From TrEMBL:
Source organism (scientific name): Frondihabitans australicus
Region of interest (Disordered), ranges: 1-55
Gene Ontology CC, one term: plasma membrane
Signal peptide interval: none
Designated name of the protein: Cytochrome bc1 complex Rieske iron-sulfur subunit
Family statement drawn from the similarity comment of this UniProt entry: Belongs to the Rieske iron-sulfur protein family.
Protein's job: Iron-sulfur subunit of the cytochrome bc1 complex, an essential component of the respiratory electron transport chain required for ATP synthesis. The bc1 complex catalyzes the oxidation of menaquinol and the reduction of cytochrome c in the respiratory chain. The bc1 complex operates through a Q-cycle mechanism that couples electron transfer to generation of the proton gradient that drives ATP synthesis.
Ranges annotated as spanning the membrane: 64-86, 98-118, 163-183
Membrane topology per record: Multi-pass membrane protein
Molecular function GO terms recorded: 2 iron, 2 sulfur cluster binding; metal ion binding; monooxygenase activity; oxidoreductase activity, acting on paired donors, with incorporation or reduction of molecular oxygen
Bias type Basic and acidic residues, positions: 41-55
Length: 355
């Protein structure tokens, strides 16, 4: 038993001197054998290791695959343009997705096959044995790591084989083109400064609750409350989603003495009720978190924080300008209406805006 062996000094001595151990199997005692390291199998050179012509041919094949990836990536962009999506036409969606997906998939597949073919035919194929050891961040370790990278560069031929290197760079650059075209097509096709400077808000437009479209009376807005607001005519707009992305507003009520409105904006609020764009000025995420005690608006995407008492100026985060304010007033029936549209573009500020 293990407990008796631990107490037996002779057994401990046998282990310490690495003497052969014995394993009991029933009534027979079988001595264990000590195995020697068989070593690595003999190296089998590849065709490309023995024939320079084959090595050159493999290099051309790898480069061809990388250039082929460039072609497929360009075809994906061409397919996205040649097969546009028509609203309501599912056939156009299928064609667009089919050819765009084929172009992107074949472009990535060509890069993958080229990289595998490169490693199989041109990179060193000798067997390596690495001893296990602790990884330490000492200076000798870092120097050794740099030597390994340098050796890998020499053995792979990445710095020496200009044809493969340049074709790989070309394939990687071309592969991102379909994504650039797709994402750019999501944005406005005209100057964003012009598109985002005007929304559905105009003088006399009623503020309504999102998404029901119910008009809001000033008496319904209590201290500490917040309303998600849309223009009254949004629900009948042909481009409802696009217009909502520009015109969405947050409505809050504070004590009038807590507001520090700048000169010229004293009449943009009504008895402490203020309205600000819901679209964050960083990258356009919806600002939807309101802290009643601090009167702060928080964007959940990148934590930009705006102070409502100070005209929604930025007090934390990557946003570069305050949220645009919507001037409001009440009509004869006590409903909240807009005095005008926003006086500046809404949304992100990563383009050059008019001064």
């Amino acid at each position: 038993m293990a407990d008796h062996d631990d107490e037996n000094p002779e057994a401990g001595s046998a282990v310490a001197h690495h003497e052969p151990r014995q394993i009991s199997s029933g009534t027979a005692v079988i001595p264990t054998e000590q195995f020697e390291n068989p070593g690595e199998p003999p190296h089998r050179p590849r065709v490309t290791d023995k024939d320079p012509q084959e090595e050159k041919r493999a290099e051309r094949q790898v480069s061809f695959l990388f250039f082929l990836s460039v072609i497929f990536s360009c075809l994906a962009v061409a397919a996205y343009i040649a097969f546009p999506i028509t609203p309501g036409d599912t056939h156009s969606i299928r064609l667009n997705n089919l050819f765009l997906g084929l172009g992107i998939s074949l472009g990535l597949l060509s890069i993958g096959i080229g990289a595998v073919h490169w490693s199989k035919t041109l990179m060193p194929s000798r067997e390596l044995t690495e001893m296990r050891h602790l990884t330490r961040g000492s200076e000798p370790t870092r120097q050794k790591a740099a030597e390994v990278f340098e050796l890998g560069n020499k053995e792979s031929g990445f710095g020496r084989r200009a044809l493969i290197r340049n074709s790989l760079f070309g394939a990687l650059v071309a592969f991102i083109l379909p994504g650039v075209v797709i994402f750019r097509d999501l944005g406005p096709k005209t100057d964003p400064n012009v598109v985002l400077k005007h929304t559905l808000w105009k003088k006399g437009m009623h503020l309504t609750i999102d998404p029901t479209g119910t008009r809001i009376k000033a008496s319904d807005v209590t201290l500490g409350s917040v309303f998600h607001v849309i223009p009254e005519n949004l629900l009948t707009s042909e481009d409802m989603l696009e217009e909502k992305a520009k015109a969405a507003v947050l409505l809050m009520r504070l004590k009038p003495e807590d507001l520090h409105e700048p000169a010229g904006r004293e009449n943009w609020q009504y008895n402490g009720i203020v309205a600000y764009s819901k679209i964050c000025t960083h990258v356009g995420c919806p600002v939807a978190l309101y802290e009643q005690q601090t009167h702060h608006l928080l964007c959940p995407c990148h934590q930009s924080t705006f102070d409502v008492t100070e005209n929604c100026k930025v007090i934390f985060g990557p946003a570069s300008r305050p949220l645009p304010q919507l001037p409001i007033m009440v009509d004869d029936e006590g409903y909240l209406v807009a005095q005008s549209d926003f006086h500046e573009p809404v949304g992100p500020s990563f383009w050059e805006r008019d001064k």
